[in-house]
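Summary for the steering committee. One of the milestones for this cycle was to obtain a three-dimensional model of the protein with adenosine-5'-triphosphate bound, which we needed before selecting residues for the alanine scan. The sequence and ligand used are listed below.
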Amino acid sequence: MADQAEKLREMVEKKNKENKKRYRVIAFTSGKGGVGKTNMVANIAYLLSSIGKKVVVFDADLGLANIDILLGLKSKYSLIDVVKSGKKLKEIMIKVNDNFQVIPAGSGIEEIANINEPIFSKIKDELIDITKETDILLIDTGAGISRKVTFFLKSSEEIVVITTPEPTALADAYAMLKITSTNYKKDKVSVFVNMAKNKQEAENTFNNLNKICKKFLNKEFKSSGYALIDKNLPAAVKQQKPIAELYPNSAFTISMKKFINNMFKENIKIRENPIARFFASIFGGG
Ligand SMILES: Nc1ncnc2c1ncn2[C@@H]1O[C@H](COP(=O)(O)OP(=O)(O)OP(=O)(O)O)[C@@H](O)[C@H]1O
Ligand SMILES: [Mg+2]
């Protein structure tokens, strides 16, 4: 299975060299669950699509998938149909808009949670096919370090490990970084801190995690940004719409725009609320 994953990664790297076109395959992962992976992926994909990038999101939270629900999508098929009735990945893709498609994984079915080697091989081949018409493939993995997660991590060129400031999330993020650090160059792995109370807490969280990594793994990782607790996010989730669409100037949306500008060298305009910026400068937030 690891072989299949590495083949996919090598293919993408080779194709990038040949075509001079830069495909990006980025996995978003975490040790602990509920840290904000799916919301990040959904909003980053939405924002990238709005600047004309062709984006596909692969919901790799096999067995407990929910990006389709988060985006209010009605899916007739899911990965379950790929596993059980031999459908193609392309046939199960759901269009969010002209530039943004989702491959839904399906939930609560044992077959999908216990996916096996031949199916991984099929997924790999079809993902290679899909990347031909795609600029960016974002993979939303499940939490933890199961075989399913590591397959998708090995398939990706880049990994974003998401944590919150909670000690439990940090301990699990460290475990995740330890695993990825044996397979990846450190510049391919970055850490994103979500749900911080303020900028200071986000920076302390990142620095403390990196100190531990330096001490025990002899490696330091780069930061891919941070996001503060944003009460508009649960509100957007309830409405099953990306926060970036409902609240384009909300703190979480701005953090996702900054992530994109930093990660993809884009220049999405950020209109920060001047009042919020004023208070942030006083209280250390934003
Ligand atoms: N910055 C934030 N501010 C406020 N709430 C947030 C923030 N980030 C995430 N949340 C909330 O946390 C919850 C979990 O988010 P999400 O589903 O994106 O996490 P996940 O890492 O994908 O979880 P799982 O591991 O279960 O797949 C959601 O209900 C979301 O509204
Ligand atoms: Mg999720």
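Key point for the committee: The longest helix spans residues 199-217.
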